[in-house]
Amino acid sequence: MGAEKHGLDLLAIEKKRVLVRVDFNVPQDERGAITDDTRIRAALPTLREILRRGGRPILMSHLGRPKGVDPKLRLDPVATRLSELLGVPVTKLSASTGPEVEAACASAQGGVVLLENVRFNAGETKGDGALAAQYAKLGDVFVNDAFGTSHRDESSVSGVARLLPSTAGHLLEAEIRAFQRVLDKPERPLVAILGGAKISDKLAVIDNLLDKVDCLLVGGGMAYTFLKAQGRKIGTSLCDDAHLETVRSALAKAGTRKVELLLPDDHVIAQKFAADAPSKVVSGDIPDGWMALDIGPRTQALYAQRIRTAKTLVWNGPMGVFEMPAFRGGTEAVGRAVAECPGYTVVGGGDSVAAVELLGLASKIRHISTGGGASLELLEGRDLPGISSLRTPV
Ligand code: AMP
């Protein structure tokens, strides 16, 4: 970063209407009360800076996946919570486009304006250009601070960014810097840990990371497609037969690129996918009728050793069915080793973040990503539309 000006520093903000795309897609209980306001808090540094520099923030966000207007997904509870956290009045509008909204945004003085859920608009998720032009009328400049939706080419994310002077807010910038630190010239050894159930989501990540990492640790349900591809017996463990060939190519690529790709060699197994299923530890092959639901203690120790010596590390996906205490040991061991790792550590993806929080280790991780899908696309080496559309360098 250095002393060089970038991002928000380069945007003229004083007396300007600053349209900000935030991610206020917060969890709510059945009565609509917000159960976790982390995403609202995450936007505060950018909003405080805009207010301090005399700008007038006009905020846009989605909430849930409405099909048209859905009264349960209005942003009023968010406005109340935001006002409490920010300590300034928040004017919540009941729409996000049209002459009345334009007039309200033009006349707003002091405080913050929050538009209605942008996904009430047909065309938002399709990236409709006419809708983006309607949003662009509401601001003089645009700031994207919604990392969690930056992999989507949507009207309020990339569409409006192309039409106004635009840049990244502090949250988005921190995410970009964290992934740059992992993917561009990392301090070595660079270790990646991949887990979770769906291997199809991770194939492109594996392919890209094999060009960059020194060591790749694979766990979770996705490991068993690898083990089957190597000719091991995996019982009834998760396996995606459609991807056996791709996995064989990944194993070959790891060999050519001299990447140490480690797979579990002992497992916690059960006969059914249930929290109360009796379990045991086996090494090597998994017997017929049994499924692996976690990595075993020997694998945990080996992975922890590689993790502790990493200078840069990225982790996406749990090592087992961490939601069930009997199959949490692998994810816990890996989480503890990541927390103890003195290198630069990044955790991304909804489930690994949930695991780190469940284990009380979040404060020991250098960067916890706020976007599951977006972080996976960065690890795939892809450009995110919400970033590449910004007109001012981040
Ligand atoms: P994903 O959405 O692909 O990142 O997968 C996350 C899910 O994978 C979590 O809900 C875990 O419970 C699940 N998972 C991890 N390991 C296994 C396993 N060995 N068998 C079945 N599910 C698993």
Bound molecules: adenosine monophosphate
CATH topology of the largest domain: Rossmann fold
Return the CATH architecture of the largest domain: 3-Layer(aba) Sandwich
Question: Are there runs of 5+ residues with pLDDT below 50, and where?
Answer: none
Mean pLDDT: 96
> Strand-residue fraction?
15-25%
Plain-language structure description:
The chain is 34% helix and 15% strand. The chain is elongated, with a radius of gyration of 23 Å. The protein has a 6-stranded parallel sheet. The protein has a 6-stranded parallel sheet with strand order 9-8-7-13-14-15, with helices on both faces. It has helices spanning 38-42, 44-52, 76-86, 99-107, 129-136, 155-159, 170-183, 203-209, 223-229, 244-256, 297-308, 329-340, 350-358, 372-379, 385-388; strands at residues 17-21, 56-60, 90-92, 112-114, 141-144, 166-168, 190-194, 215-218, 260-262, 266-270, 279-283, 291-295, 312-316, 344-347, 367-368. The longest helix is centred in the middle third of the chain and has 14 residues, at 170-183. It contains 15 helices and 15 strands. It folds into 2 domains: 7-169, Rossmann fold (3-Layer(aba) Sandwich); 186-379, Phosphoglycerate kinase, N-terminal domain (Rossmann fold, 3-Layer(aba) Sandwich), CATH 3.40.50. Adenosine monophosphate is lined by residues 196-198, 201, 220-221, 238, 292-293, 317-318, 320-321, 323, 351.
